[in-house]
């Protein structure tokens, strides 16, 4: 069994490009080899929330994270993909096609992710619209669950901010 918080560090790699283009929910795809193959394979599939930071920058974002096979699309390989949620005061917060966070690309950057807890299992949806509705709700849950201040949050945000 995995215990939280779950920290990982990885380069951001390319996926199918579907997150932004088809859903309006860009996800930074992490790399199995960087995370550690055994650790990665042991991750329980599901939808999670946590904190994320891009090394070399100072901002820390809330993140809604998908780990698994995207059953709506029946992927053959497992992915770990956080969607970074900008603060509502930031201009990029509502820029995506479905009104979520769309930032400049950061492919090749090193991302730090600290997963705090699970939201739900990943599910096969019968339409893209229903998948988008579910993800938008996950984003709300993430923002809500991470709205308070506590010691774990402070420590994980610090870790996400630290440089290599
Ligand atoms: P891919 O299939 O290559 O992962 P996506 O359509 O999911 O493509 O887009 C992901 C890329 O978009 C990320 O790697 C990152 O460079 C960029 N990006 C922009 N905004 C965000 C965001 N809010 N969260 C995650 N990635 C983002
Ligand atoms: N894909 C699914 O097939 N089922 C899901 O329940 C699901 N939930 C997601 C929740 C969040 C917060 C995010 C960011 C992604 C989710 N995805 C899910 C993954 C989505 O299909 C994937 O990011 C895109 O297909 C682009 O790779
Ligand atoms: Mg992606």
UniProtKB/TrEMBL annotation:
- Write the record's keywords in alphabetical order, separated by commas: ATP-binding, Flavoprotein, FMN, Nucleotide-binding, Transferase
Q: Where is the Riboflavin kinase domain?
A: 1-147
Q: Which InterPro entries match?
A: Riboflavin_kinase, Riboflavin_kinase_bac/euk, Riboflavin_kinase_dom_sf
Q: Name one GO molecular function term.
A: ATP binding
What Gene3D superfamilies does the record point to?
Answer: Riboflavin kinase-like (2.40.30.30)
List the pathway annotation.
Cofactor biosynthesis; FMN biosynthesis; FMN from riboflavin (ATP route): step 1/1
Under what name is this protein listed? riboflavin kinase
- Tell me what organism the protein belongs to: Triparma verrucosa
Q: What is the lineage of its organism?
A: Eukaryota, Sar, Stramenopiles, Ochrophyta, Bolidophyceae
């Amino acid at each position: 069994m995995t215990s939280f918080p779950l920290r990982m560090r990885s380069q951001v790699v390319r996926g199918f490009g579907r997150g932004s283009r088809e859903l309006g929910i860009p996800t930074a795809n992490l790399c199995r080899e960087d995370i550690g193959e055994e650790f990665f394979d042991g991750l329980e599939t599901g939808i999670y929330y946590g904190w994320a930071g891009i090394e070399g920058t100072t901002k820390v974002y809330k993140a809604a994270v998908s780990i698994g096979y995207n059953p709506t699309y029946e992927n053959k390989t497992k992915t770990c993909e956080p969607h970074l949620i900008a603060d509502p005061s930031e201009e990029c917060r509502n820029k995506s096609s479905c009104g979520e966070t769309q930032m400049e690309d950061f492919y090749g950057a090193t991302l730090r992710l600290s997963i705090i807890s699970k939201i739900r299992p990943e599910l096969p949806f019968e339409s893209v619209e229903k998948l988008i509705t579910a993800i938008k709700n996950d984003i709300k849950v993430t923002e809500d669950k991470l709205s308070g201040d506590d010691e774990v949050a402070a420590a994980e945000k610090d870790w996400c901010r630290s440089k290599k």
